[in-house]
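[step 3/7] inverse_fold.run input=structure_tokens len=179
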């Protein structure tokens, strides 16, 4: 079951979900609009390695915006911190942003119950596109859960700003267990 806009507002007010800052004008009929934060990351190497940390370059989005280039992956973040200990959040790009040729979320739209923080956005443009800090870039829907809850305690908890992949940490743990 998906939460309606009025239920998102009620849940934000009574603490069943946390959206900071919360703005009533960002509530949709069944989702909440999130805005692009002021920082972008791009991977600095041409070849990424899933078993190693990958260096990144940080960019600030200035008042004139920042032009994203095709063929590049940019890691952005939501301005809002969003999370819930009760509901399952899913993040998608807004249709108006998609119509500009921008992929906002590549393959991982589902958030875990218990995660609280800024969401990392995986931004990939089809053609050069100027984006601005604070623009409404995505929307989060909330679904009711069924069954016992084991809250998220993972490596991205309490994230602020864009987070590069930490997949290599999982590999390191697996190697330690295997040896």
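[step 3/7] decode complete -> sequence:
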């Amino acid at each position: 079951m998906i939460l309606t806009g009025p239920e998102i507002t009620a849940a934000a007010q009574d603490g069943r979900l946390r959206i900071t800052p919360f703005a009533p004008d960002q509530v949709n009929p069944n989702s909440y609009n999130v805005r692009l934060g002021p920082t972008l990351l791009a991977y600095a190497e041409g070849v990424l390695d899933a078993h190693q940390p990958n260096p990144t370059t940080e960019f600030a989005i200035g008042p004139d915006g920042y032009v994203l280039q095709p063929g590049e992956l940019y890691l952005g973040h939501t301005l809002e911190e969003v999370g819930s200990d009760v509901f399952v959040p899913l993040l998608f790009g807004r249709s108006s942003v998609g119509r500009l040729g921008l992929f906002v979320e590549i393959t991982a739209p589902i958030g875990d119950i218990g995660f609280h923080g800024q969401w990392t956005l995986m931004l990939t443009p089809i053609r050069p596109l100027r984006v601005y800090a604070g623009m409404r870039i995505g929307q989060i829907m909330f679904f009711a859960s069924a069954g016992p809850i084991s809250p998220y305690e993972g490596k991205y908890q309490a994230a602020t700003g864009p987070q590069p992949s930490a997949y290599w940490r999982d590999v390191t743990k697996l190697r330690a267990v295997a040896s």
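[step 4/7] annotate
Residues 5-178 form a domain with the Deoxyuridine 5'-Triphosphate Nucleotidohydrolase; Chain A fold (CATH 2.70.40.10).
Helices lie at 5-14, 95-98, 167-178.
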